[in-house]
Design goal:
The chain has 335 residues and is an all-alpha fold. The chain is built from 9 helices and no strands. α7 packs antiparallel against α8. InterPro entries: DUF3231, Ferritin-like.
Length: 335
C-alpha cells in the first residue's frame, strides 16, 4: 500500500538526480573499462559499471510505475569507447575511490528524506553498495601503494579545555595549530581538487567547442588556485599535503571519448559537489580565517558554475529537473 502513495518532492528530486548521475557514470565507466590495462583495476571498474547499470534499471522501473517522464540523461552518442586512452590506470582507480565516497554521501542524504518503502530501500541498499565499492578501491589503492593517507599528527597526553577567545581567531596575531577536523577537510578538499584538475586537463585536450574548452581551462586555473590556498594553510602548520595529479593524463590524445554535453554536465556536477563539501567544511571549521576563506572560494566557484549553466542552456544541454507547476502559466487563456 505504501507504494501507492505519491512520491514527495524530496524523493522525486533525489531519484531524478540519482538517475542523471547513474546515466553519466555508466558512460564514463564504459570508456574506463574499455581502456584499463591493469588486471587488478579492471574488475573494480566492472563492479562500478554493474552497480550503475543496476541503479539505472531500478530507477527506470520506479519512474515507469509512477508514470513519470524518464530523464534523457546520456546515451551511447555521448561516449566513444574506441577513442584513444585519455587517462592512466591510476586515474581510473582514484576516480572509483572518489565515486564510492561521493556515492556514500549522496545516498546517505537521500535516505534521510525518503519515506516511501521502495524509495528508502533503493537508497539504503545503494548506500551499502557504494560503501563496499569504496572499501574495495581503498584496499586496492593500499595494495598498489598509491593510496594517499591523510596526515598523522601527534596528540596531547591529557584532556584540555579552551581558555582563550583567540582559539577562534586567525586573522591577526598568533594563529593556533590546526585542529584534526580542520586538517581532515583541508586535505580531502585538496585531494578532490587534484582529481578534478586531472579530469579537466583531459577534457581540455579533447573538447570540441571553443567555448567549452575555454570554460574548462578557466576551471583548471580556479582549481589550481584553490589547491594552493589549502596547501598554504596546511604548510603553515607543518602538515604534509597530497601530491598533484599531472601524471594521470596522457599527453597524446586529442580525440574526445565524450560529447561536450557530457563533459559540461560532469564539470558542473563536480562544482556542485565541491560547493557541498566546502559548506560541510565551514560547519566544522572553528578558526575564523579558514571559514572566511572557504566562504570566498565557494562564491568563486558558484559564479563559475552559473557561467557553466548558461553555456549549457545556450547549447540546449541542460535537462530541467522536476519542478513545481507554474500556476500563473496554467491560468493564462489558451490561444
Amino acid at each position: 500500500m505504501d507504494q501507492n502513495i505519491d512520491l514527495t518532492a524530496s524523493e522525486l528530486s533525489q531519484l531524478w538526480g540519482a538517475y542523471m548521475n547513474a546515466s553519466l557514470m555508466s558512460k564514463v565507466l564504459a570508456y574506463f573499462h574499455a581502456k584499463v590495462e591493469d588486471k587488478e583495476i579492471e574488475p573494480l571498474i566492472q563492479d562500478a559499471l554493474t552497480l550503475e547499470h543496476s541503479h539505472l534499471k531500478q530507477l527506470t522501473s520506479i519512474f515507469e510505475k509512477e508514470n513519470k517522464p524518464i530523464p534523457v540523461g546520456f546515451t551511447d552518442k555521448d561516449v566513444d569507447v574506441d577513442a584513444p586512452r585519455l587517462y592512466s590506470d591510476n586515474y581510473f582507480l582514484q576516480y572509483i575511490f572518489q565515486l564510492g565516497s561521493l556515492g556514500i554521501y549522496a545516498f546517505a542524504a537521500s535516505v534521510t528524506v525518503a519515506t516511501r518503502e521502495d524509495v528508502y530501500l533503493f537508497f539504503s541498499t545503494g548506500l551499502s553498495e557504494y560503501n563496499a565499492l569504496h572499501q574495495k578501491a581503498s584496499l586496492l589503492s593500499l595494495t598498489k601503494g598509491v593510496y594517499t593517507r591523510p596526515p598523522y599528527i601527534p596528540t596531547p597526553n591529557e584532556v584540555d579545555f579552551v581558555k582563550k577567545q583567540s582559539f577562534l581567531a586567525g586573522w591577526f596575531g598568533e594563529q593556533r595549530p590546526l585542529l584534526a577536523t580542520e586538517i581532515t577537510h583541508l586535505f580531502s578538499n585538496m585531494q578532490r581538487n587534484n582529481l578534478g584538475i586531472a579530469t579537466l586537463t583531459g577534457y581540455s585536450q579533447v573538447a570540441k567547442s571553443k567555448d567549452v574548452k575555454e570554460y574548462i581551462l578557466r576551471g583548471i586555473g580556479i582549481a589550481q588556485k584553490q589547491v594552493k590556498a589549502f596547501s598554504s594553510i596546511l604548510e603553515k602548520s607543518k602538515v604534509p599535503t597530497p601530491m598533484g595529479s599531472d601524471s594521470m593524463v596522457t599527453a597524446s590524445n586529442t580525440i574526445s571519448p565524450f560529447s561536450d554535453k557530457l563533459i559540461m554536465y560532469h564539470v558542473t556536477g563536480m562544482i556542485g559537489i565541491g560547493i557541498g563539501f566546502y559548506g560541510l567544511s565551514i560547519s566544522t571549521t572553528i578558526r575564523r580565517d579558514i571559514a572566511a576563506k572557504y566562504t570566498r572560494l565557494t562564491g568563486e566557484i558558484a559564479l563559475y558554475s552559473e557561467d557553466g549553466a548558461n553555456l549549457m542552456i545556450e547549447n540546449e544541454w541542460l535537462e530541467e529537473p522536476p519542478r513545481m507547476v507554474d500556476r500563473d502559466e496554467l491560468a493564462k487563456p489558451k490561444k
